[in-house]
Specification:
single chain, alpha+beta, Prim-pol fold, 2 domains, six-stranded mixed β-sheet, 5 helices, binds zinc ion
Length: about 200
Amino acid sequence: MPKTPRCEHEPCRGPLPITARADARYCSGRCRTAACRARRSVPKELAARPRWVRRSSRKVPLTVDGQSASSTDPATWSRYRDATASSAGVGLGFVLDGDGIVVLDLDHCLDGDQVEPWAQGVLDAAAGCWVERSAGGDGLHIWGRGRLPGGGGRRLRLGAGTVELYGDGRYIAVTGEPWGGTPPRLGDLQHVINSLL
Ligand SMILES: [Zn+2]
């Protein structure tokens, strides 16, 4: 049975209307506009690095050709342009390789559009960094510059929630859905990391 074509705007993923053209990628003009906005929102420092992958709905990293990818094998990564042009899987991912780009992952920190109190302090401290809504829809990723002592990732309790810190050896699912009008650039996160650790 042929796979039902789905809207490529990630928060939608609805079926395409049966009247859609064979090469249609979005279910509506609204979704096309939202997807374009998300693509433009990604900071240039990320878009310029050839460390992009695709990902499945179960967050398995994929190459632009739909093969399995690895966060430690650069041969399976691509340029941003090629990753956004690919329709493999359901969305994009960016590989952290220890070059000083870090992500703070605030899981389940949104209740609708309200930020949970435990997460608000981190967001305030990270002012000047790009923040995107996570693929699950109820979390946020803060993107910036810094180093994690010892490398790898860290998982910390913070009030009623959990914050995860990543700097290398893994990929981050990227939605490009900006949060709270944050600027599309990587600000300094080192002071935030230092205060958390
Ligand atoms: Zn749609």
